[in-house]
Design a protein that fits this description.
Blueprint (H helix, E strand, L loop, with lengths): L5 E2 L9 E3 H8 L3 H9 L5 E4 L2 E5 L3 E2 L2 E2 L3 H10 L4 H8 L11 H6 L3 H10 L3
Length: about 120
């Protein structure tokens, strides 16, 4: 797993995660490709129970949630660590439609999520 940035597991234990082989199945690709997505910063991985996993909320039926990769990029450009990104994506925000940034992304409200991520850089 060298070279793969891993966030601390700051998520509630009730938030489902998928081990890399399951992520590969969801995406219809190989586990090596999933590792590359993690290295490239297109997904955020965390260790749970000693296993490298990705939050299941990052995926919809046809792949990665629309806008997630761009949001991760904006947060990375703002200096957020992987752990801080994960915490922000899953933190309740009553003023945001969808209640958390990841839920807003899943509800196709990516513009508002990215706007807030960009505003945090200043």
């Amino acid at each position: 797993m060298s070279g793969i940035p891993v966030a601390e597991d700051v998520l509630d234990a009730a938030i489902a995660v998928l081990p890399l082989p399951e992520v590969a199945t969801v995406l219809g690709t190989s586990t090596n490709k999933v590792r590359q997505l993690l290295r490239d910063g297109q997904l955020i991985g965390l260790k749970r129970g000693g296993e490298l996993c990705v939050p299941s909320d990052f995926f919809v039926e046809d792949g990665v949630v629309k806008g997630l990769t761009g949001t991760i990029t904006v947060l990375a450009d703002s200096g957020f660590s992987r752990t801080e990104m994960l915490r922000w994506l899953f933190t309740e925000d009553d003023s945001l439609p969808g209640s958390t940034p990841i839920n807003a992304l899943r509800a196709n409200r990516g513009t508002e999520v990215k706007r807030r991520a960009q505003a945090m850089a200043f």
